[in-house]
Design goal:
There is one protein chain. The chain has about 1150 residues and is α/β, with parallel strands linked by helices. It has 21 helices and 22 strands. A six-stranded antiparallel sheet has the order 2-1-4-5-6-7. Strands 8-19-20-3-21-22 form a six-stranded mixed sheet, sandwiched between helices. Helix 19 (about 1105-1115) links the parallel strand 19 and strand 20. Helix 17 crosses helix 18.
């Protein structure tokens, strides 16, 4: 597996999406300091799961997001993606079949980190687990950054061991062991807590078991008591139900009898009314028949008179005067008789009419008196009904109050017993021995708090001093970091300038080889030691040109000894200048200070301020003379030269001067940094002393706080117990007070109930007297009503008789008056007839046959009317007799109904009282949750109220002997038992899990020891083989600092050739770097990681050691992919691919890739 490419976007200085491809196993990243080269390594470390912002050269994880520049705005997120080529199947498991593995991490401004594996969101642990044992990771040996070499070589034995563990692939075992140890620790903690819970639970279960047994017995007794009470109530209900049934039967029979009497009374009233109506109709009929009788009698008399008159007229046709006179006399006789009769009847009518008015008035008065008597009787009935209802309420109240008095007396007995028990318990709790202990603990706690406050104040002083030291240390560290940054910047600048200077002064491959063959490669060039006035560097470079690279020779003998025939390729320049050159006034030599004589090059060259001045003065030049301007225009009489070389080839003199200046600054900064290091060491030592003192003070404070916590716990326990006792006493006092109040209230209620009972009894006595008064009033009213009815009937009958008699007399009077009028009219007619007869004597006999027939009809009619009148008189007498009989029957029915109604009301009152008691028993059963018929079904046949009452008393005595009962103990015991079983199962599971985890630890330890020992031996062998190769001799080896392979440290023992150092710390910086590289490469040979990233690890090495380092890396690149950052030319040359990182704009990095082979081919072409 190898790293294929890195995709950066918004990460640190890489604001634009940038893809860094790695097609070969040797890739070098170059560029000036501060351009963002190390950000590439930070990106790899970050995407692999680095969680420390400090290791990424930041203060927080959001610092990796591009924060903007002078020309760019900040971005909202940073994203890094690594693409691995897994075609060789290095990764195992579920990712073995993937040819490419993509790992991406993204972070936003709100610190939201997201990981993606092959485009699928995952956890950070998923990514770290993939690379366990491969040598890759955020802090593995595959990434060697700046300062890592020194950290590696100077690391503690325990830290150095981590690299060997990673190489051995046991980091995953170590991670598993750490997880297993955490699980074991948590399991032990859980087991300890579980053991405490189980022990406490066992103690609670013993107590709850006893309470639960008592509670179960109590529930059993209470259930039996409730059952017995329900059965007793059912027995009482059954007895009351029988009594109610008997009362209902009696009431039903009496109601039937009463309804029969009421029906009979109503029938009698209806019969009376019907008879009265019939009597009235018969009276009217009798009057009508009598009037018709008198009317028929008058008609008969008239017809008879007409017949007689006709007969007389017929018999006395001849004697008209005599017959007429006789007829007139007879008529006058009848007129006299009728006048007498009419006068007699008028007198009789005059006598009867006042009597009739008096009789009618008396009848009306009797009817009014009768109506008043009936109203009085109805009022008495309403009064009686109200009295009945009112008298029932005191009786019901009396029964209720008797039952309430019985209940209150029983409740008072129970309250007295409860008050006695509470008073005994209150007396037992009166003395409290805990008060003295609590006071002593409170005093100790106060002293402990004072001591704790003093310790806290002392610790605060130490903390303040430590914070001040930390501030000073921070300032010194910041100053050191700033100085180191400036030093690194200077070193980078020096390295870059030196690289450019070397590139500019490089004589070429052929020339370099010839100079090396002639042992002139160490000779300084002409440009060495030149000091040029500022601004004239380009002019001097233009004049000297390529001679700046000329190698200085000591003398001509050295020149003659050179094998110039062996020089076959390149540009060779040699110089033999005299030492201590002279100055020529007015020439370019005035602008130059050198240790050699430059007159042959610069004496004939005069400086001018500009090209225009040179062109003007060139005609005045002497032979061999020329002019030069500061901007590099070299003008002679017959030539003009301008040299514009590339940056790497130009500015040699200025660069050299800048290098000297930078070297001076570096020395100054190094001295300043040494002072800061010394100051930091002093501050750190002071901080260490202060922290030790603070730690000691903190331990004292913790001990005091622990003691105070124990005192508080004891005090809290004592106070809690005292509070419980106080609360119990308060509850007992409160309960006793409530019981006293309840007793007083119930005694008051008992007195009120007795008063209500006496009031009800008094009301019942008053009701008895009132009932007797009402019955006496009823008898008087009934007697008066009967008398009024009899008087009303008598007055009505007399008025009726008078009315009949008066009607008959009026009829006779009217008929007599009519007859008299007819007779008068007849007399007039007879007079006229006499005159007519006198005039008509000669007329024939008058028709008498018609009058005879009419007379016969009238006689028959009078006989029929007489029969009707007789029958009407008989019917009227029968109606009077029947009416009197009906009124007698109604009076008897009323008397019997009143008697039966009183008996019915008494029965109803008794039935209502029994029904109320029966319903109260039924409601009590329902409230207790029993169904009446179910209880009755369970009753034995021999059950009785007395036996059940005795059994209830015996059961109450057994319940009383049980004492205080905790009914919640049953459920609590079941719950706690279930919890105990669950905790026992949990305990067994934890013990089993603990055994399993310990077995896993033993297996991991065994595998770790074996792998570590094997890997240690192999790495040690590799180090012993590589060390002589890197140093050209000497030896080095690894040494274990302990005996246990699980936690022993590893130290490095190195002896470079010609030295006898006993420890790595005595080596120089370069030797330490080479030793560290030898160790890293030995690890790589054993367990080669897919790639290795090196960040300027060659910085402390000289060219010879860089060459060795480069050759070693080149050899290992056959199996390991190397990506390294360097400023060294030799290291650059060994790369197959160069990637330049530049800042094309401030704060923004850009990547420029160059293939070295293509570049060389282009150069050679």
């Amino acid at each position: 597996m190898r790293l294929k490419c890195i995709k950066l976007a918004g990460f640190k200085s890489f604001v634009d999406p940038t893809t860094v491809n790695f097609p070969s196993n040797m890739a070098a990243v170059v560029g000036p300091n501060g351009c963002g080269k190390s950000n590439i390594i930070d990106a790899v470390r970050w995407v692999m799961g680095e969680s420390s912002a400090k290791n990424l050269r930041g203060e927080s994880m959001t610092d990796v997001i591009f924060n903007g520049s002078t020309s760019r705005k900040p971005v909202s997120q940073a994203s890094i993606e690594l693409v691995f080529d897994n075609s060789d199947g290095t990764l195992l498991g579920e990712y073995a079949s993937y040819a490419e593995i993509s790992i991406r991490r993204r972070v936003t401004r709100d610190s939201q980190n997201t990981y993606f594996l092959n485009g699928v969101k995952c956890r950070r642990r998923d990514i770290t687990d993939i690379f366990l044992g491969t040598g890759l990771g955020p802090r593995s040996y595959s990434i060697i950054e700046q300062g890592m070499i020194s950290k590696l070589i100077e690391a503690k034995p325990e830290d150095l061991r981590n690299f060997i563990e990673e190489a051995a692939g046991i980091s995953k075992y170590k991670e598993r062991r750490r997880e297993t140890e955490n699980r074991i620790r948590r399991t032990h903690e859980n087991l300890a807590r579980l053991t405490d819970l189980r022990e406490e639970l066992e103690r609670q279960l013993e107590r709850l078991h006893r309470q639960a047994q008592s509670a179960e017995k109590y529930q059993e007794y209470k259930a039996e008591e409730r059952q017995l009470k329900a059965q007793l109530a059912a027995l009482k209900w059954q007895s009351l139900n029988e009594q109610v049934g008997q009362r209902e039967a009696v009431i039903g029979n009496q109601e039937v009898s009463f309804e029969a009497l009421v029906a009979e009374q109503r029938n009698a009233d209806a019969s009376i009314e019907r008879l009265r109506d019939g009597h009235h109709e018969l009276s009217e009929r009798f009057n009508l028949v009598q009037g018709r009788f008198y009317s028929v009698g008058g008609d008969i008399a008239r017809v008879e008179q007409s017949i007689q008159h006709g007969q007389q007229r017929l018999r006395q046709l001849q004697d008209d005067l005599r017959d007429a006179e006789r007829a007139r006399q007879e008529t006058e006789s009848h007129l006299g008789h009728d006048s007498t009769l009419l006068a007699t009847l008028g007198e009789e009518l005059a006598q009867l009419e006042p009597e009739q008015e008096l009789t009618t008035a008396a009848a009306e008065e009797a009817a009014a008196a009768l109506e008043e008597a009936e109203s009085a009787m109805h009022g008495w009935q309403e009064q009686w009904d109200g009295f009945t209802q009112h008298s029932a309420e005191p009786r019901r109240q009396a029964e209720v109050q008797q039952s309430r008095i019985q209940q209150l007396e029983q409740s008072l007995e129970r309250l007295a017993e409860r008050q006695r028990r509470l008073a005994e318990e209150r007396q037992q709790l009166a003395a409290d021995p805990q008060d003295a202990a609590i006071l002593a603990l409170a005093e100790q706690l106060a002293l402990s708090e004072l001591s704790l406050e003093e310790l806290q104040a002392a610790e605060q002083l130490q903390v303040d001093g430590l914070e001040q030291l930390r501030g000073q240390l921070l300032q010194a560290g910041q100053a050191q970091q700033q100085a180191q940054g400036e030093l690194q910047r200077l070193q980078g600048r020096l390295a870059a300038l030196e690289a450019l200077q070397q590139a500019a002064l490089n004589p070429g491959k052929g020339t370099a080889e010839w100079l090396a063959a002639q042992q002139l490669n160490e000779r300084p060039p002409l440009a060495a030691g030149l000091r040029v006035e500022a601004g004239w560097e380009l002019a001097v470079e233009t004049v000297l040109g390529a001679d700046l690279q000329a190698v200085l020779l000591d003398d001509e003998q050295q020149l003659n000894s050179l094998d110039l025939q062996g020089f076959s390729q390149g540009d060779l320049r040699l110089a033999l200048p005299a030492r201590g050159g002279v100055r020529v006034p007015g020439s370019l030599l005035d602008k130059v200070e050198a240790s050699v004589d430059l007159a042959p090059w610069l004496a004939q060259v005069k400086p001018v301020p500009s090209l225009e001045a040179a062109l003007q003065q060139r005609h005045q030049l002497a032979p061999g003379a020329s002019l030069i301007s500061p901007d590099g225009y070299w003008v002679g009489r017959h030539f003009l030269r301008v040299r514009r070389a590339e940056v790497a080839e130009s500015g040699v003199l200025a660069r050299a001067q800048e290098l000297e200046r930078l070297h001076a600054e570096r020395e100054e900064l190094s001295a300043r940094l040494a002072d800061l290091d010394e100051q930091l060491q002093q501050l750190r030592e002071a901080q260490r002393v202060q922290e030790q003192a603070r730690e000691q003070q903190r331990r004292l404070l913790q001990d005091e706080a622990r003691q105070q916590g124990e005192l508080k716990a004891q005090l809290s326990a004592g106070q809690a117990k005292a509070e419980q006792l106080t609360l119990r006493r308060q509850r007992l006092d409160h309960e006793l007070h409530e019981l006293t109040e309840q007793r007083e209230l119930e005694q008051e209620q008992l007195g009120e109930s007795r008063l209500h009972l006496q009031d009800a009894l008094d009301a019942m006595a008053v009701d008895t007297e009132q009932r007797e008064r009402l019955l006496a009033a009823r008898d008087g009213l009934r007697e008066r009503l009967d008398r009024m009815r009899q008087e009303a009937r008598q007055h009505k009958d007399h008025a009726h008789q008078l009315a009949v008699r008066l009607g008959s007399l009026k009829a006779q009077h009217d008929s007599t008056r009519q007859a008299l009028e007819r007779l008068q009219l007849q007399a007039e007619r007879l007079h006229e007839k006499r005159e007519q007869l006198n005039l008509n004597l000669e007329e024939g006999e008058a028709p008498l046959e018609e009058l005879r027939m009419k007379l016969e009809e009238l006689l028959d009619k009078r006989m029929a009317v007489e029969d009707e009148l007789k029958l009407a008189r008989l019917g009227l007498e029968d109606a009077d007799r029947q009416l009197r009989d009906a009124e007698k029957r109604r009076t008897q029915a009323e008397q019997q109904g009143q008697l039966l109604r009183g008996q019915l009301e008494q029965q109803r009152l008794e039935w209502q009282a029994l029904s109320v008691r029966r319903k109260a028993l039924l409601d009590q059963l329902l409230d207790d949750g029993y169904e009446l018929h179910g209880v009755l079904a369970t009753l034995p046949s021999e059950a009785s109220e007395s036996a059940w009452s005795d059994e209830l008393e015996r059961l109450a005595a057994r319940i009383q002997r049980l004492g205080p009962i905790n009914l919640a103990a049953i459920d609590e015991y079941q719950q706690q038992s279930e919890r105990k079983r669950y905790l026992d199962a949990q305990n067994a599971d934890l013990v089993e899990a603990l055994d399993t985890l310990e077995n896993v630890i033993r297996k991991i330890d065994k595998e770790t020891r074996n792998r570590f020992k094997e890997t240690f031996d192999q790495i040690n062998g590799g180090l012993q083989a590589l060390f002589p190769k890197v140093f050209g001799g000497g030896n080095a080896y690894l040494e274990l600092t302990g005996e246990d392979l699980l936690d022993t440290g590893v130290s490095i023992m190195a002896r470079p050739p010609g030295k006898k150092n006993s420890t790595i710390h005595l080596l120089s910086g370069g030797e330490k770097a080479l030793t560290a590289l030898a160790l890293v490469f030995a690890i790589f040979q054993l367990n080669p990681a897919p790639f290795c990233m090196l960040d300027e690890v060659d910085a402390p090495l000289d060219d010879a050691n860089v060459g060795r380092y480069a050759r070693l890396v080149k050899e290992m690149s056959a199996t390991v992919q190397f990506i390294y950052i360097t400023h060294n030319k030799i290291a650059m040359e060994m790369a197959d691919q160069l990637m330049g990182v530049t800042m094309h704009e401030p704060g923004c990095s850009r990547l420029v890739a160059v293939d070295v082979e293509q570049a060389l081919a282009m150069v050679e072409a």
